[in-house]
Design brief:
It comes from Periplaneta americana. This is PiggyBac transposable element-derived protein domain-containing protein. InterPro entries: PGBD, PiggyBac_TE-derived. The structure is a single chain. With about 110 residues, the protein is mostly helical. About 55% of the residues lie in helices and about 0% in strands. It has 6 helices and no strands. It starts with 11 loop residues before the first helix and ends with a helix.
Length: about 110
């Protein structure tokens, strides 16, 4: 098990980037953009969008709603201002549908 010592004054983002560094983030962006391109669609996810997407995914484990789309609804009991201001529902859905962390054409190396 990996233990990360807590240091005073460090932000949650600093701890997160210890596990999801720039190389991993770049891989996710590359493969997330590559996947729709293979279906003749534009994949134009940026590193910033990927970070926002990951933040919403992590937040959804903490602030749960029955359906993910409820974060963008206007009802007070489900709307999440932080999420709706950070990324649009359609953009989040596009990234979620295309989110990849490896190249599908090169999967056999993982099974050998």
């Amino acid at each position: 098990m990996c233990e990360v010592p807590l240091k005073p004054g460090r932000s949650p983002l600093e701890y997160f980037t210890q596990f999801c560094d720039e190389e991993i983030l770049n891989m996710m962006v590359t493969y997330t953009n590559q996947y729709p391109a293979k279906k003749n669609r534009v994949g134009d996810c940026s590193e910033n969008e990927m970070m926002v997407f990951l933040a919403v995914v992590l937040l959804s484990g903490y602030v749960a709603v029955p359906r993910r789309r409820m974060y963008w609804q206007r009802e007070q009991d489900s709307h999440n201002e932080l999420v709706s201001n950070a990324i649009s529902r359609d953009r989040f859905d596009f990234i979620m549908m295309n989110w990849h962390v490896c190249d599908n054409d090169d999967l056999e190396k993982f099974f050998l």
